[in-house]
Amino acid sequence: MSQPEYTGTDRPTAAETTASADASMPLPPSVAAGPLSHAIFRVCRVHRLLAGQLLRRVGLHPGQELVMMQLWDRGPQRQTDLVHLLGSDAATMTRTVRRLENAGFVRRRPSPSDKRVTIIEPTAASNALRHEVERVWLDLEAGVVDGMPPEEQAVALKVLERIEESLAQATAQQV
Q1: What is the pLDDT of residues 15-27, one digit of tens each?
Q2: Does residue 92 sit within a domain?
């Protein structure tokens, strides 16, 4: 499939935007100063799109499965601990927990030791969902590594870890 070139004045269609995950797509001139950042942006966007499609099958939105995974693996958690574990912020976590609660996947209860603290715990309905979410993650991983030999997967993981370290350092310096 041939890739469209941007002239700087035209805008890509939805199909072209989805196709732009292809690494051979020429960069728009406005992002030429940051080709790696642009590639990361494109990969994250398409990854989230696929995750959303897969998670929709089990009634979740991207990010909600991460909260559920923490609860399944670690047991009931203080909401503030979930914020720290997932690198989120309080407002986003509150919205996520509220949506999961409305869907019947978590329940909130006051801490027995500190009434100011809210404990989030998985429900029986979410425990039944666990295997489906694990399958979604297997399917997502298969989409990520499709055709990539194990050696390339190891290199990609190492590079992504290095990029994460660099971004964490840059973020810490901005505070």
Answers
A1: 444 444 455 667 7
A2: yes
